[in-house]
Amino acid sequence: MKRFGILSMEGVGSALRSVISRVKEATAKRSSELPKTAPRLVAVSKLKSLDYVIEAYDNGQRHFGENYVKELIEKSKDVKIQPLNDIRWHFIGHLQSNKCNNLVGVPNLFMVETVDSVKLANSLNISWGKLNKPSPLNVMIQVNTSKEESKSGCLRDQCAELVEHIITHCAHLKFSGLMTIGEMNHDWSQGPNPDFTTLVDCRKDICEKLSLSLENVELSMGMSSDFEEAILMGSTNVRVGSTIFGARQPKQASNVSSMQGSTQLTSQEANLSDASQQNVTKDGLPNLAALNTDNSTDRDSHTALNSTT
Ligand SMILES: *Cc1c(COP(=O)(O)O)cnc(C)c1O
């Protein structure tokens, strides 16, 4: 079904199918100790209009990731999204405790992947509890595997304690796994991404310390530039944005302030936006997003991406 005649939208379906087949191929190449089940694909639609989400939905995608509370609320409550009641939203951005009440109001919120402190876990627990939902909210703990100060996430040594806190004190949350963003532009010829290795080891620690079984603790790792490697290392949840939807507009101060009120971009988020631009140029394609500032940018760069994938 085609709801939109715009070129950029038509590219979403084929880009999505290409990512899905790459996910399957990578899963098939896993070593025999790892599960044969393909990871969940989360299509990261941040900074993309709702029409992109609907186009991916029409092509069978159900899990979507968003980074900004305000943007997620607007998208999830839009009249065009309301009928799509099996959509599943993942919050994957930096979350402030005072935004929890707003976030939990998102219809079909499936998972918050970025809990990184006891304070945040407690706020989210209280916010979700107030809604009297039939089931707890799925949460992952974001781990700052590279220990860079600019990045969000709890440190590996604090992780077990935070998991234990959630399991014992947050009845309205379900601890589902660990998430990392990982080093951008890792050179794979130098071996596996140390961030992914750390996340795998961190899960092992936690499972031993808290007597959990590995199968019950997910690993959210892998983005456009590295989801296949992450799958080979056991990722159960990959978050892919620009390879499905095309390059995002570079973030500008005005752009961000309209998304997030007065909140500043963290340098982590700035890195992510850089990385998605680099993905395009790395493939030898012109970095159109950097050259253009008008709305045709997404269309052009998306078409360029699709013609090679
Ligand atoms: C933006 C973002 C992604 C997707 O990045 P791409 O490189 O566009 O695939 C994944 N995870 C997080 C946390 C993000 O912020």
Automatic annotation (TrEMBL):
- Bias-annotated ranges (Polar residues): 251-281
Q: Which UniProt keywords apply?
A: Pyridoxal phosphate
Extract the ranges annotated as region (Disordered): 251-309
PROSITE patterns on file: UPF0001 (PS01211)
GO: which molecular function terms? pyridoxal phosphate binding
- Mark the residues carrying the PTM N6-(pyridoxal phosphate)lysine: K46
Superkingdom: Eukaryota
Q: Tell me the ranges covered by the Alanine racemase N-terminal domain, including all copies.
A: 38-248
- What does this protein's UniProt record list under function? Pyridoxal 5'-phosphate (PLP)-binding protein, which may be involved in intracellular homeostatic regulation of pyridoxal 5'-phosphate (PLP), the active form of vitamin B6.
Q: Which family does it belong to?
A: Belongs to the pyridoxal phosphate-binding protein YggS/PROSC family.
PANTHER family linked: PROLINE SYNTHETASE CO-TRANSCRIBED BACTERIAL HOMOLOG PROTEIN, PYRIDOXAL PHOSPHATE HOMEOSTASIS PROTEIN
Return the protein name. Pyridoxal phosphate homeostasis protein
Source taxonomy: Eukaryota, Metazoa, Cnidaria, Anthozoa, Hexacorallia
